[in-house]
Amino acid sequence: MSAAGAPAGRTPETATCIPGRIGVVGLGLIGGSFARAWHEAGFEVFAWNRTRDILDLARIDVVDGELTDDVLPTCELVVLTTYPEHSVQWLRDRAHLVSPGALVIDACGVKRTVCDQCWEIAAGRPWTFVGAHPMAGTQHSGYARSRADMFQGAPMVLCPSPDLKDLDRLELLSRLVGLLRPVGFGRFSVTTPEEHDRLIAHTSQLAHVVSNAYVKSPAAQEHRGYSAGSWRDLTRVADLNAPMWTELFLENRDNLVAELELVIGHLSEYRDALQDADAERLERLLQEGTDLKRRADLPHPKEA
Amino acid sequence: MSAAGAPAGRTPETATCIPGRIGVVGLGLIGGSFARAWHEAGFEVFAWNRTRDILDLARIDVVDGELTDDVLPTCELVVLTTYPEHSVQWLRDRAHLVSPGALVIDACGVKRTVCDQCWEIAAGRPWTFVGAHPMAGTQHSGYARSRADMFQGAPMVLCPSPDLKDLDRLELLSRLVGLLRPVGFGRFSVTTPEEHDRLIAHTSQLAHVVSNAYVKSPAAQEHRGYSAGSWRDLTRVADLNAPMWTELFLENRDNLVAELELVIGHLSEYRDALQDADAERLERLLQEGTDLKRRADLPHPKEA
C-alpha cells in the first residue's frame, strides 16, 4: 500500500502532495484499468466513483481508499475518467483542493472542449492540467471489464497547454510520462486538441459509426454460417455505449460529419461503378484503397 | 503418400477413381491451404497450377504429383480454387475426363453464375458438381501464405443442385462432408446459390468495400499514435486483391449494390442527426445498432 518502488516524481518545493499518490475519478472500464495498472506498479491509488458499490468492490484489492476532499490535496496526479461534461464539472467543483505542483489529466475521447474548459479552470492556480487520451479500450464498458494490462503497448496522446513556455513544457511532459509509463503505454504523442480531434474523428469515432451502421442490414441477422473474420472485425465495435458516444460525437461533430461525408462519398463511387458494371473503374477504386492502406501502415515520417 | 487412414468414400460401382484421391485446381491461398490440410490428414493430393514454379515448390512437401489429364480420371474429389471464370472454363475443358462417381466442388465467393454453369457442364455426365464456399481466408493471397489450419473451425457453405432427388442429395452431402471434414471445417450450411449470394454480399463483400473506402480519408495516413483496435479492425481487409474482388463483386452486383445502398442510407442518418446536433436522435440511432449487433450474435433460430 506504499509508493515504494514508484518514481518519486519531481514536484515543486511548494508541493503538499505525496509523490506517487494517484487519484482516479471514475471506476469504469478506463478508470478501473488505470487503478489496477498503477496499483500493480506499486503506486498508492485513491478513487472517486458515482456509485458506492463499485468503489467498495475496488477497495478490496485495487484501491487504497476513497478520493475524498481530504485526500485530493495529497495526490500528485489526478486522472479524470468520467464522461467529458462530468469530468470538467468534477474538476471545477474541486479546483481549490488540488495540491500545488500536482498534475491533472483527463481521459476523454474529445479534447477541444475539455481542454479549453480545464485550462480555464487551472488558470492562475498552482497546478497544471494536461489533456490526455489513452488509445485503448474494448467494446465493453464498466469496472467489471477493466484490466491491469489495458494500456500495455497502447499509444497515449497528450495535449499540454499552448501557454506553457518551452522549458516548463518539457519538464512537465517528462514528469507526466514518468508517472504514466508504469501503466504500460507503448508510445506518447504530443499534439494540439484541434489536431487530436481531427484525427480521432477518423481513427476511432468513424469506426464506431460505420460498425454501428453496418449491422443494420437485415442480412446481419442471418450471418451465422455465412460469415468469417471480415464480418466479425467490421462489426466488433457496433455494440457500444450509446449515451457516452453520443456526447463524444456531438463534441466533435464538425470533424465527424466531415469524415462521414468522405466515406459516404467514397462508398457511392463503388456503388456507381457497380451499377454501371464498369470493371475497370471498380478495379481502380479497389486498387486505390489497397495502396492507401499499405501506405498508411508504413512507419510515419514523423516517427523518425 | 498413400490414402491410408483416409475414409474410403462411397463411390458408385462404375467408379474408376481412387477413394481419397483429391485434385486441387489452383495453388493460391485457398487451394494451397486445401492441399496442405488434406495432405496432413493422410489424403493423396494432386494439383494443377497456372505457373510451374509454385507447383514444383508444393511437390516438395505437400502435393503428391501434378493433376494431369491422366491423373484427373482417378480423383474422387476435385476442388476448383481459381477465379470464378477460370474455374468454370477449367472444368468445361476437362468435363469428359472426370471419373464416374466423382465429386467436383468449387471454392468461389459467388455461387449463382458458377453453379449455373457448372451444373450445365455436369448435366448428363456420371459425376456431380456441388457449389462450395469455404468461409475462411485472410487479407493475404498466394501459396506462400497458405496454411494447413486455414479452415479449422470455419463454416463451409454447400449448394447442391436443386435437380437432385432427396435421397441422392442426402447421400451426396454425407459423402462430401466426409471428405471435407478432415480439412477442419467447423460447420456446414446447405443453401441455394441465390441465398448464398444475398448473404455473402453483406457478410464478406460489403466488408471489403467499406474497409477499402474507409482508408481513403487523408487522416488515415496519420493514424499512427492516434489509433487502436477499432481502426485496425475496420481497415484490416482494405488491402485486397483488386482484380479478384472486381470479378466477384460484378458477379454479385445486384446484391452488393443493395447492401451499399443500405449502409450509405444508414450512415447518412447519423450524419444528419450530427448536423442537426440532435442528441436524442443520434443516441437512438446508436442504440438501434447496438441492439441489432447483440441480436445478430445470439444463436440463430435455424441452428436449433
TrEMBL record, chains A, B:
Keywords: Oxidoreductase. The keyword Oxidoreductase applies. Pfam families: PDH_C (PF20463), PDH_N (PF02153). Residues 20-304 form the Prephenate/arogenate dehydrogenase domain. The keyword Oxidoreductase applies. InterPro entries: 6-PGluconate_DH-like_C_sf, NAD(P)-bd_dom_sf, PDH_C, PDH_N, Preph/Arog_dehydrog, Prephen_DH. It comes from the Bacteria. PROSITE patterns: PDH_ADH. Belongs to the prephenate/arogenate dehydrogenase family. This is Prephenate dehydrogenase/arogenate dehydrogenase family protein.
